[in-house]
Amino acid sequence: MIRKLLEKLPLLLWFVPGFLLWASFPPMGESADVFFALAPAIWFSRRNSPKRSFLCWFSNGLFFWTATLSWMPAIVKNGGPWPLVVLGWGALAAYCALYFGLFGWLAAIVWRWVRTRHYGWRLLAIFVAEPVLWAGLEIVRSRLFGGFAWNQLGVAPVNAGLGGPAMLGGVYLVSAIAVLVNGTFVSIAERMFAGFMRDSEQVGAPPRWLRSVETIVPLVLVIGVYQIAGVCRDFFGSSCHVKMSAGLVQRNFPSVFEMSQGVEEDTEERYSFLFSTLAHAKPDVLVLPESAFCEVGAVDSPRASLFARQAMSVTGAKAVLAGGSRRSGEKLYNSAALYSRHPESRPRCSDVYDKVHLVPFGEFIPFDKVFTVLQKLAPVGSCTPGELKTLELALDASTAKLGVAICYEDTDSAQMRRLAEKGARVLVFMTNDNWFSNSVEPVQHAWQAVARAIETGLPVARVGNSGVTGTISPDGKASWLVDGDGRPIVDEAGAMCARIDMPSDWTPTVYVRLGDVPLFCAFLVLLTAIGMVEYKASYEQRRKVSM
Length: 547
Description:
Elements: H1 2-12, H2 16-23, H3 39-47, H4 50-68, H5 82-114, H6 119-143, H7 155-159, H8 166-192, H9 213-236, E1 241-250, H10 265-276, E2 285-287, H11 302-315, E3 319-328, E4 331-340, E5 348-354, E6 391-394, E7 399-406, H12 413-421, E8 426-432, H13 441-456, E9 460-465, E10 470-472, E11 478-480, E12 494-503, H14 510-514, H15 517-546
Parallel strand pairs: 1-2, 2-3, 7-8, 8-9
Antiparallel strand pairs: 1-12, 3-4, 4-5, 6-7, 9-10, 10-11
Helix pairs in contact: 2-4, 3-4, 3-5, 3-8, 4-5, 5-6, 6-8, 6-15, 8-9, 8-13, 12-13
């Protein structure tokens, strides 16, 4: 009876992994769940066929992604046609769930082969195959077709203060560690219930007391990685810093604007109040969110210059950095402009950054430059990607290089690495989350930014429109603009002034130096090995049939 119940347990708890994984991220934010959420599904893939394992993982992935992307319908109130929004929600959830299914399918293939081999192969499957497969698939999801780098498994531990290894292998290494811990719980359960399971014995398996190595070794590996990360943080950390003060302004304006002839009275009053709260601090730079200049015109227009002058006059800031749009000929850009003080009366636009990583079906429609009729379907117009660059901010005694990321770009770890390589000493993230206001998206979005600080070893200043505003130190500690209850302000206006320590003798982290190459190469080697094993098995089967 107990044996039959244990064998049916994965079916009875079919959607538990998807639910626990959803609970690891906002709105619940129970980050610790990520270390055991996938255990039931891993148990299932170790004991079932690739096809059944694929269905189990895909079903849980579909549950997780449908629930975690529940903020997508919020765009309907901003003019998004609900049939297309719902279709996009379902399609994106199914696409991301496909990676869960692929993991289950590949893991089951590994275990089908491992079950008939020496016990040492089982250890390799637990310690290497499962973690590398998951991390590799996350890397592919974050890059393929423009990439959807959202809510990687490692994002939850990063926001729980356990993101140290991200400086070694990015958030994907933290994801691999989480899978290793999940697999360890499965190994413990397998030993506990070995007497009730028909297929509990492994070819060449050692005595049961020796199988505790499946628990001890992962523990040693995890502790070792975190110890190495701690040593590297001390080694790569800067002993000398340049102080910079940043005024972060979250006004919470509408997500879409009609270009006006000037600053509306309501807009002027709102900004004047927020600016006045920063007047005592006289920040080095005043940072406004994505699309802030859209209320007054293009980012390099005379009206934008007038607005920047007003902002500097009220706050005493030396520079203003804000997002908006601009045109160059027929090309439309989503940009961020840096205005600096000038001996003349009007501030000068000293530099402009044009967004590089555009959002498909948001800022452009695939192939819309070839089939121009598709450009009419882009919600904000058909944008053109810019070139990656840093912006230089002149301070009193030095110059600060700012690495700017607009909206979704702050989820792109590869792009943030490149900014660090180009000399950025502060990452500035600006976003317009009002498209998804009154939903959980702004908080989920802010969670992604924490990993970028640890990966690059650089401080982060983040400003959201109806989003989350604040700063993140290189060790991942966030200081958000909060309300009276200590919760991040999302749908209310606010402003804060933060002191940012920029490293003057910064040494690139391991992740900045190597990126995703080590993990992805391991993933490719593993895929090649799986392919060779499957080909050999298929060849032998065909040979037997022919004989």
